[in-house]
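sorry for the late reply, my laptop died twice this morning and i had to redo everyting from scratch. anyway the thing you sent over, i finally got around to it. pasting the sequence first so we're on the same page, its 144 residues, then the predicted structure underneath. double check i copied it right bc i was rushing
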Amino acid sequence: MKEKKNYYIFLGDLKVDVSEEVYKGYWQETNRENYLKRLDKENRLGYFSEFVSDEVARSMEERLIDKAVDLEKLVEVKMQIEALNRALDNLSPDEREIIQALFYEEITQRDLAKKLNISQGAVFRRKEKILKKLKVLLEDWKEK
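ok and here's the structure:
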């Protein structure tokens, strides 16, 4: 004869006897909550209630700051990208086409040479000339 299994749920220090159905429902919901919390943690999501704590008196701003992000570095990179875009605007359409193909579309020098109906060496020399021009334009930006 099969022995009847007892099911318990702990509420604080209190051990509560429950039916199998309640026990399974409780653990199904608990496991779901834990799964969602893991997803939130992996995706770096937080809830307002997590920031409210009597333990330490900190402002909401202090609680939300992500110390893994270097804001100054982000601003600097954004400024560099804007400067690069301004420098690219100073290129001729032909120069811009070469830079676009080689660095943004990642077309090989050989394929670009075929497309433009010039030698691979000519593509290389034009690329080097354009990069020197961009370097001068970007050095002007650094001095500002």
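The chain has a mean pLDDT of 84.
thats about all i looked at so far, will dig more tmrw
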